[in-house]
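Below: protein 1.
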Amino acid sequence: MTAHADETQEAAMSKVTTPPSDLDDALWQAWKAIELPEGYHAEIVEGFIEVSPTGRYAHGRIVNRLRDRLVVFLAQGEYAAYQDINVAHRRKVWIPDLFVASADAEEHVTEDGLGIDASAVRLVVEVVSPGSDGITRDRTRKRREYARAGIPVYVLIDDFDDGGTITVLTAPDREAAVYGDELRAPYRLGAALPEGPAKGFVIGAEIVGAGRVG
């Protein structure tokens, strides 16, 4: 192989790996040093540390119903449902309302022990939080972040979209930070997950409720 070919290959590899920047490292160190009062958590989303309260009762009820049913659906398989655990990707960190990863998660814990590496996560779920910041974070900023990380399935349970809509996003494009396929369904009809460990699992009204009125 010629010197020119070697240089070309090295340049291509550097574009693929895209190591964390100095800003990423600074945010990571700051995030690790944060001490929050009970009832709050912090994430690094698109270059910002975002602090938000834990979900209200209605929010937690949906997440717990979903996890209870997923535990049964996934029983005896290679995957499990998780809550309240950090998901990390290249000095970014998120705390999804729920995610599905290998049941043997220990082998996917990050080197510092602070969370699960995003490469092991097959499904993330966010129950959209109220308020413009919460809605934008879940619908837009986290949507891009999860696509960048290559997480195969992103589910949005959204009280504030046409009175209650379940959106299932698949086919992530890491470079463009978008999901190529989108399925939307009202709460009353429900949505079946089209792929992954929970393929065929239906998220419907018995989990999300009847939706908002007005």
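Below: protein 2.
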Amino acid sequence: MALRNAVMAALIDGEASGYDLAKDFDASVANFWTATPQQLYRELDRMAEEGLIRTRLVEQERRPNKRLHALTPAGWEALRAFTAQRPKPTAIRDELLVKVRALDVGDAPSVRAAIAESKRRAETKLARYERLRARMLGGRTEQSYLLEAESVGPYLTLLRGIAFEQENIRWADLAAATIDRRRAATAHDPAGTVGTRLDNVAIPRDSPVAPRPTG
């Protein structure tokens, strides 16, 4: 998927400035597609050159002028064509999970701290998504909104983002608790039945990085 497809999806509701699009990405689209403001502005310029969006200048008093972008007929057609394509399988590249995979031979306190930081970020995003959800519902029940709202795509994607961050928090709690329990068990294991200690990490005795007996 190209960035322009996410931009076109964000323009469904009408005109928006580059600043507005950046905010929209951060508040909603960011749960499935990320882009920096610089990337957005460059992509908007390319899309305008290719006729996918039209841009008009709005002069403002006491504020810098702003450019508003909207889909052209060619842009609407390109978006419809994109929705007809078969989506590519999701590919996850998560550095934290690689660190967790190597936890048993790595620096457990550092990995534990990274998990805690990941949880804090997930909680922040979840709180933002929940506020957005409340604004979208506007006092309506979810059932009535899904049946009566003019557009449900943004809400459905928001629900996916909420579920994703909720799962991130649950997993972080499980991972952190597991590390804490194992470290506590190792600290009270003078016989070494849990594993050989290496930098506060329980290492299996047959691990190639386990310390070798001396003397």
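The chain has eight helices and five strands.
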